[in-house]
Design brief:
Elements (H helix, E strand, L loop, with lengths): L2 E3 L14 H9 L5 E5 L3 H15 L6 E2 L4 H6 L2 H15 L3 E5 L2 H6 L3 H11 L7 E5 L8 H16 L2 E2 L14 E2 L6 E9 L5 H12 L4 E5 L2 H4 L19 H5 L4 E7 L4 H11 L3 E4 L5 H15 L5 H21 L3 E5 L2 H13 L3 E7 L8 H4 L5 E4 L2 H10 L4 E4 L4 H7 L3 E3 L17 H18 L15 H4 L6
Parallel strand pairs: 1-14, 2-3, 2-4, 4-5, 6-7, 8-9, 8-10, 10-11, 12-13, 12-15, 13-14, 15-16
Helix pairs in contact: 1-7, 4-6, 7-11, 13-18
């Protein structure tokens, strides 16, 4: 069990953390015909949009309530009401995400009250879902902001089921769900953590479909931010993603698959609200995790494992044999969000690698159990300066982190395996698949190649007692 070392510095040097509002916005970008509107200053939204555009290399729909110095002091309630009204009139979205920021949280904004007030003043927009999320950026990280948004989406958009014995009077004022769990016996819900890329989501959907099941992913970044071209020149809303109708019908699925510990609270809420049974996975990297996911799908579908899945498993096993000389005893340094840190740590340590440094931006809200399970002696809560320091002390051979760690890797003269968000100096990082048998296989190949690239030819040893080659040739004059 890893020991968690808390921050000892008064500031962040070369920050690792990505803010909660960015994480919440990312979750809303996985919904169809949606748009996030951050309640804060224009700079808060613009800063996050820059990283989204550089990471996904796509136009990103983001709006802001544009708080200025006057509204910050005098109150910005009107900004929220007017902003929601303008978006509804001009863009007609199906869903509007409304995350707060550090500025509005410091002001003390009651974002849920403002949504209620908007409903009262503009009932003509009741068909448009508005999901408020308290996501201050002075705490948490991208992972926790993403998880808070998923929980809010379930809370505001998934109807509550009607218990058989509960009187009708007890249901007054609540959205009723008359759907029955398992009605759509081929549907499988998937709650996807922020650690999953659009490429991961596509892999998971194909994995589920191989068993004859129909996946409904929340949020579906693999459908909205996979980098596909459309006939539209510009869209002010997301193109692709989880439809509003599918979110409202999550209670009719046969099962829910939860990927990532950060979504435990969202999973608890969905199970309580719909009664749909769930199966939870920490991650889907490595042989054991993939086998568990495959077995769960086989049980839900009542079918044997397809031949192509068996072949992919055999390919991963062969890759494990091919790369164990490089991965075994390799010394790795990781700096990632908690879910991601656990996934990479368990995967590579299972191949015999040693995690000599592990840095996380924060302790998860669900508790410290995620970080304590990372296969490392200590997990430092800190920044990339801490990664650089601990990696040097541990004599690391390779770093695993986002693009912000490139400078640290350069100073340490170590290769960097880019993972997480953002990746702005690598084209296609968002499309990479890490999960599944094929994703794990490619990850092993990449790790092995980076380790091999660090090996240099050893110069030939020449004894000091051996005569020079010139003497052997009779060229030395006495």
């Amino acid at each position: 069990m890893a020991e968690i070392l808390k921050r000892t510095k008064a500031l962040a040097v070369n920050p690792l953390k990505v803010s909660q509002p960015v994480g919440a916005s990312l979750a809303f970008l996985g919904l169809r015909s949606a748009i996030p509107m951050l309640h804060g200053s224009q700079g808060c939204t613009a800063f996050g949009k820059v990283f989204f555009v550089r990471h996904f290399r796509e136009p990103i729909p983001l709006q802001t309530t544009a708080m200025d110095h006057i509204s910050t002091v005098m109150g910005a309630d009107a900004n929220v009401i007017e902003g929601l009204k303008t978006i509804c009139e001009k863009n007609a979205p199906e869903i509007i995400g409304l995350p707060t920021t550090g500025l509005s949280e410091t002001q003390g904004t009651d974002i849920k009250r403002l949504v209620k007030r908007f409903r009262e003043e503009h009932p003509q927009f009741d068909h448009i879902a508005v999901v408020p999320v308290n996501a201050p950026d002075d705490m948490g990280s991208l992972e926790s902001g993403f998880a808070l948004a998923v929980e809010a989406i379930i809370d505001y958009m998934v109807p509550m089921r009607v218990p058989m014995r509960e009187p009708k009077s007890a249901l007054a004022g609540r959205r009723q769900n008359r759907s029955v769990a398992g009605r759509r016996h081929m549907q499988v819900n998937v709650l996807a953590s922020s650690m999953l890329t659009p490429g991961d989501i596509e892999t998971i959907k194909e994995w589920i479909e191989a068993f004859g099941l129909r996946p409904v992913v929340l949020p579906d970044l693999g459908d909205s931010l996979d980098g596909h071209l459309t006939d539209r020149e510009f869209s002010p809303l997301t193109v692709g993603g989880t439809p509003k109708s599918e979110i409202e019908a999550l209670g009719e699925a046969a099962a829910t698959l939860v990927i990532g510990r950060s979504l435990c609270r969202a999973a608890d809420l969905l199970k309580e609200r719909t009664g749909v049974p769930d199966v939870r996975f920490d991650h889907l990297m490595g042989l054991d995790a993939c086998d568990a996911f495959t077995a769960a799908l086989a049980e839900i579908a009542g079918q044997p494992v397809p031949e192509k899945i068996e072949r992919q498993r055999a390919q991963l096993q062969d890759a494990m044999v091919d790369t164990h000389f490089m991965a075994g005893f390799a010394r790795l340094a990781l700096a990632l969000d908690p879910d991601h840190l656990l996934a990479f740590g368990e995967f590579f340590s299972g191949m015999g690698a040693e995690i000599v440094a592990a840095v996380a931006p924060n302790v998860p809200k669900n508790g410290a159990a995620t970080l304590k399970d990372v296969p490392c002696a200590t997990v430092q809560i800190g920044d990339l300066e801490d990664l650089e320091r601990t990696a040097k002390l541990g004599n690391a051979q390779l770093l695993i982190s986002n693009s912000h760690a490139a400078q640290s890797a350069g100073r340490l003269n170590l290769p960097l395996l880019r993972a997480g968000f953002p990746q702005y100096d690598l084209v296609g990082g968002y499309a990479r698949a890490w999960v599944g048998y094929r994703g794990a296989r490619q990850a092993l190949f990449d790790l092995a190649n980076l380790i091999l690239g660090q090996h240099h030819d050893i110069p030939a040893y020449r004894s000091i007692y051996r005569r020079p080659a010139e003497a052997d040739a009779g060229l030395v004059r006495h």
